[in-house]
């Protein structure tokens, strides 16, 4: 019965979404307050209905209702409760339901918290949000209904893919979707602005918090996915330039650009047209990611069961939204006025450079991701574009950006002084030089690029922090007054510093682990000792045991450093009985920011087992840096200016505004 | 410097053009050397492939050819017509099996042995590398959409 309720709630939500996507626009045109007021009511009701539907599916998983196809295919009564719940979105149908649920939550949030939005803008934004909801609800109901019944119902389910039976599934997809879907709000604002033919600094002030929130979630989601792949797949890598990873990385790059261009628009009323275009492109890339993962054009860990009908449906959605968005942009962009003028060397100029480089880097990732698909479609020739390609294109493009980042906050708006900024960055520059010298000495002249990379990371981190210190002006005003000045700085200033320092941390982790990790693969038997990096690993013994839905072989090892025991490790190999599928569980020990990583291969005939070991220096900084970036975004989001809200549109319209 | 809109636009276009040009240059350069072509064992046997070029080969792991020597593994990849010997140092994927589909990436040595640095097998029991499916279909030994787990050697022509 609950399944039918869930299904029915989805159909009702679709009907409401249809109303929401038409009526408010008409209301906004006619300036009819009653029609416009339909939008928030519909958005809230829709959120409740989709929430009900999601709860119904979750309930079916929790009680293991095997009369529902989706539950049979992805669950098992012996599966631990956590994975019964997370299994709801560990499959195509359920994850689409989570996708629209998050979409509806964002829509409801605009309806509930957007009180200070002008009525017509709010109505238009929610209507555009309604279009997206209609498209995806129709997609679910037509091709991916999670509530299909099975008669007769089997006694047992087929279990969830063991790789997905992990806490990572509880965190990674929801965060990623919060990011992807969050950009739909920026998109809705952009389209609404084009429909109204009016855009001003106040618009940027409304869009920025939504973009910032989506960006924070996406940052955390990508970092979490990377760490999950790192420990679960046992390959010891943290990024594979897999097309599906790229699919989440492209919206992140575009979203990062959008974040920075929205600042220019808010502060200086410039770059309007570009910001609107970026908002459209960012969400388009999110949709492209959804298409790549679900259409079956790719084979990867992430690819869901393939069904051509789904691929075609999403392709149509993709074309409608991207094509429609860009057409509207082409038709209406000229009605938006141009903003203030600025010198090339200025804060605006620095942010424009950020945008140009991020967009170019994003485009190179896009080419590398789609080129094999296009080539195979056109000529039938199969190629694989992997790490070497991206290292050679993405890497060199990002270097000038990373070098420029510390300069940005030092430059004044409108007209900056590069010489003065350079003089104020002397400390960061000296710190980078000292770091390079120390690392070169410590690694006795290691790879030159890696040493320079560490120096670049130091430049980013020290450069970000020194900007705060120089704003306090300790030297001129004394220590106590300086501290007070520091405390009085707006949170968004802290946000910038923290996010840029986080970027430096991630870079440091990447460089350290790429260049200075040690790796060994060897066959070990009980009693053997092998050396890896700074450690000696002893094979103590093995034992076999049973988990709830798997059998396992656990290997006990001890790690010593100069004869002193530093850690016990027990990597294992599991065999999931229902799916007849083996998995490898790596054992990872963290010390400081570094990690010791052990994973198992096949057993050799004579009682030995292949063991792969890594000593990974500073590897955790890769993900900690991303979390710090997210924290920076959060700080910026909590800035008083954004919380209090935007200035009244009356003030904004005092500035030259395009004729409607 | 006088801040005119025209000047601002010129600088913008100049910088954007420079970044874009370097991006295009890098992409073209990387495409000429860093892309792995997909080849089947038959492609390698018939057409001369220069040693040292980065390749991706796919097919089935030939029955009875998997040899382990410490952490190095040697096996043959077959498309049922021709075979290629592959060596690999590393952990094989959990679902690496004789008679199952596999994709290996690396370079062909002068001795005709393929030195793989990456070996991909299926992610779960339903998944087969797409290149392998296509190449098996081309050889006429694809057994529909069910698993290709039984030995296809009997269908050698």
3D structure, described in words:
The complex is a heterodimer of chains A (about 650) and B (about 160). Chain A has about 650 residues and is an alpha+beta fold. Chain A folds into four domains: about 1-155; about 170-410, no CATH class; about 425-515; about 520-615. Helix content of chain A is about 65%, strand content about 10%. Chain A is built from 23 helices and eleven strands. In chain A, β9 and β10 form a beta hairpin. The longest helix of chain A is centred in the middle third of the chain and has 33 residues, at about 345-380. Chain A starts with a helix and ends in an 8-residue tail after the last helix. With about 160 residues, chain B is α+β, with helices and mostly antiparallel strands. Chain B has two domains: about 1-35; about 35-145, Nucleic acid-binding proteins (OB fold (Dihydrolipoamide Acetyltransferase, E2P)), CATH 2.40.50.140. Chain B has three helices and seven strands. In chain B, β1 (about 35-40), α2 and β2 form a beta-alpha-beta unit. Classes of the chains: A alpha+beta (about 650), B alpha+beta (about 160). Chains A and B meet through α13, β1, α14, β2 and β8 of A and α1, β1 and α3 of B. β1 (about 385) of chain A pairs antiparallel with β1 (about 35-40) of chain B, so a sheet runs across the interface.
Mean pLDDT of chain A: 89
* The level-1 CATH class of the largest domain in chain B: Mainly Beta
- CATH topology label of the largest domain in chain B: OB fold (Dihydrolipoamide Acetyltransferase, E2P)
Radius of gyration of chain A: 27 Å
Silhouette of chain A: globular
Oligomer: heterodimer
Would you identify the regions of chain A where 5 or more consecutive residues have pLDDT less than 50? 646-660
Number of domains of chain A: 4
Main sheet specs of chain A: 6 strands, antiparallel
Beta content of chain A comes to 5-15%
In short:
The complex is a heterodimer of chains A (660) and B (157). Chain A is of the alpha+beta class and 660 residues long. Chain A is built from 23 helices and 11 strands.
